[in-house]
Write a structure and sequence with these properties.
The structure holds two protein chains of two kinds. Chain A is an alpha/beta fold. Chain A contains ten helices and 14 strands. Chain A folds into two domains: 171 residues, Thiamin diphosphate (ThDP)-binding fold, Pyr/PP domains (Rossmann fold, 3-Layer(aba) Sandwich); 153 residues, Rossmann fold, CATH 3.40.50.920. Chain B has one domain: Thiamin diphosphate (ThDP)-binding fold, Pyr/PP domains (Rossmann fold), CATH 3.40.50. In chain B, the strands form two sheets. In chain B, strands 2-3-1-4-5-9-8 form a seven-stranded mixed sheet, with helices on both faces. A two-stranded antiparallel ribbon of chain B has the order 6-7. In chain B, α1 crosses α12 and α2 packs across α9. The chains are: A alpha/beta, B alpha/beta.
Chain lengths: 340, 295
């Protein structure tokens, strides 16, 4: 069995069911060998038929049910089949789950995890390819965690189930069949990596040995691989050195690793798969600029362009941000510096 | 019942005097519903209520001080002034102001009680207006399918805020619940005794059969939806007033006893009001919710 992202998540869920009798999984079509649209819960119901439950196609009710379960001490994990469907849960997430603990004056806790696949690149079209986590970033009360290939996704899921606040757990679906990068002698693909934080680590990767680099690129989720490809090309073709900062806890996020990298590079690019306008990237730039003002050039954010995501591959690639977009932006930013 | 009536009347007065701010949704006229049902529940059972929650809350908790303090936004309130009139939480009592919003949470709690094999049941109060929310039927479908011990009380006061039932509801309420194969009872009465009697049977059904049930109570609200937003024809309201549940009750009690009860209740509300007026306003935590999350 290959250690893919799907396998890692599946095994984590199995461990959670085995070790914590309060864990319960709900979702559409998640039982049996079918195991959900992306097979993350494959075969789990065989051993835990009372705690792995297929539900009606009622996302809002399922989210609210999980709230009730969490209020009474269970640890529900909800699978929303496609991240796009999360807007069906929005009232429960925003007007209920996000509010209960604080508005009820800390009398209740809601330790629940809402897992969902986000992202495109698979030709699923406008309503099955979006990265909608940004909608919930401005809502106090939720944690948002995103898996990537630099950190073990299953371990991250186990940590998400441990915390006492509700967690929106974002799985970039493009990653499911991929394998997390092996880490050898503190390096990924030959480049040194550092991790900051225990439960929800931020990964830093440098093509300049953490000594010197031209730019810091902050990204999360499935985009880390896209950025890493760009960094390799920038190194080989242009001799441009980059540092990548990849938080797993994206809201709120730990700003320190970004500041740490900026102290070396003094240049910032943020790259995400959510739509660029009003996006996470711009929030990162704002928060960073409150603590760091010594930028060589104005930071930039790149994300998905302002179109619904097309089904046809050619157009989908044009709308979603690609490796070439990172390369182009980095080169353009650095040439701006040279021109000055 | 007297407590609810007097409390709600006092609350409206305090709004007029500018002591209260924000909003409130009065329960005047519907008192027999809360009293008839909730008196069969025990403290381990659960209640999920809605924007019009004062009557349910007072019947379940008798916490006059907490509720009045909460309405005044004081530290001594049920949830320390954070929730206000429609966001209460005390023991096993919860309310929120979104139509149908708490139905799934109520179903989730009833799942846990069944799963843990307690015999606690969950009661959720909704209104006729809630019957136009899709989520209502997601939950009806689900609780029937999973056989969850949930009592859904529909207090049909014939108005969704200001819109009369003829303008917002098609078909038959009873058939809607029965379509999901949910055991359904309908009562058209303002008599607390009649509701009390029927509720006993229904609550026992939910507890013993471990199945959902719907209780439709056809009722009427004598006060405005909120503070002073009553567009109803005053003749219509007057016609319904002959059914006043308090009046029906008073007819059966010695006048002296009624007087005693009223005096006792007025005193209790006065004590709660003095207490609440003296109480402090809450302060905000120095750290916000994002800052409090360890990463």
């Amino acid at each position: 069995m290959k250690y893919t992202v799907v396998y890692s998540l599946n095994q984590a869920l199995r461990r959670l069911l085995a070790t914590n009798p309060d864990v319960l999984i709900m979702g559409q079509d998640i039982v049996g060998a079918y195991g959900g649209a992306f097979k993350v819960t494959k075969d789990l119901s065989k051993d835990y038929p009372d705690r792995v439950l297929s539900t009606p196609i009622s996302e809002a009710a399922m989210t609210g049910m999980a709230a009730g379960m969490a209020m009474r001490g269970l640890r529900p994990i909800v699978e929303i089949m496609f991240g796009d469907f999360i807007v069906l849960c929005a009232d429960q997430m925003i007007n209920h789950i996000a509010k209960f603990r604080w508005v009820y004056n800390e009398k209740v806790q809601l330790p629940l995890v809402l897992r969902t696949p986000m992202g495109g690149r698979l030709g699923y079209g406008a309503t099955h390819s979006q990265s909608l986590e940004k909608i919930f970033m401005g809502i106090p009360g939720w944690r948002i965690v995103a898996i990537n290939l630099l950190t073990d996704p299953g371990k991250l899921l186990e940590k998400a189930v441990e915390v006492l606040e509700p967690v929106l757990f974002v799985e970039n679906k493009w990653l499911y069949p991929k394998q997390p990068y092996p880490i050898q002698n503190g390096s990924i693909e030959g480049f040194p990596v550092r991790f900051e934080g225990q439960n929800f680590p931020t990964c830093l990767l440098s093509t300049g040995d953490f000594e010197d680099a031209d730019i810091t690129i902050v990204t999360y989720g499935g985009m880390a691989g896209v950025v890493l490809e760009a960094m390799k090309e920038l190194l080989l073709e242009e001799e441009i050195l980059c540092e990548m900062v990849v938080p797993t806890h994206i809201k709120p996020f730990n700003i320190n690793p970004i500041l740490d990298s900026l102290a070396r590079t003094r240049n910032l690019l943020v790259f995400e798969e959510g739509t660029e306008n009003f996006g996470w990237g711009r929030e990162v730039i704002y928060q960073t600029s409150q603590k760091f003002s010594d930028f060589k050039i104005t930071p930039r954010a790149i994300g998905t362009r302002n179109f619904p995501i097309p089904s046809v591959k050619k157009l989908e690639m044009e709308v979603l941000p690609q490796t070439e977009d990172v390369i182009r932006a980095v080169k353009s930013m650095l040439s701006e510096r040279i021109l000055r | 019942m007297f407590l609810i009536r007097r409390f709600e009347e006092r609350v409206l007065k305090l709004f007029e005097e500018g002591i209260l701010f924000g909003t409130t949704h009065g329960y005047i006229g519907q008192e027999a519903n809360a009293v008839g049902i909730i008196n069969h529940l025990n403290k381990n059972d659960f209640i999920f209520s809605n924007h019009r929650c004062h009557g349910h809350y007072l019947t379940f908790t008798e916490d006059v001080e907490g509720l009045l303090s909460e309405l005044m936004g004081k530290k001594t309130g049920v949830v320390a002034g954070r929730g206000g009139s429609q966001h209460l939480c005390n023991g096993h009592f919860y309310s929120n102001g979104i139509q149908a919003g708490l139905l799934p949470a109520a179903a989730g709690v009833s799942f846990v009680e069944k799963y843990k094999k307690t015999d606690n049941i969950v009661t959720v109060f909704i209104g006729d207006g809630t019957l136009s929310q899709g989520l209502t039927y997601e939950v009806f479908n689900w609780v029937s399918l999973w056989k969850l011990p949930l009592l859904v009380v529909i207090e049909n006061n014939r108005y969704a805020q200001s819109t009369p039932i003829e303008k917002h509801l098609a078909g038959d309420i009873r058939k809607r619940a029965e379509a999901f194969d949910i055991h359904t009872t309908e009562l058209s009465t303002f008599s607390v005794e009649e509701i009390f009697q029927e509720a006993e049977r229904i609550i026992q059904y939910v507890r013993l059969q471990q199945k959902p049930t719907v209780l439709i109570l056809n009722t009427y609200r004598f006060c405005s939806h909120s503070k002073s937003d009553d567009g109803r024809n005053s003749e219509e309201v007057k016609r319904w007033l002959v059914n006043d549940p308090i009046k029906l009750l008073v007819e059966k009690i010695e006048p002296n006893t009624v007087k005693e009860i009223e005096e006792k209740i007025d005193h209790r509300i006065k004590v709660a009001e003095d207490f609440s007026r003296r109480a402090e306003f809450p302060t905000l935590d120095p750290l916000d919710l994002d800052q409090m999350m360890a990463i």
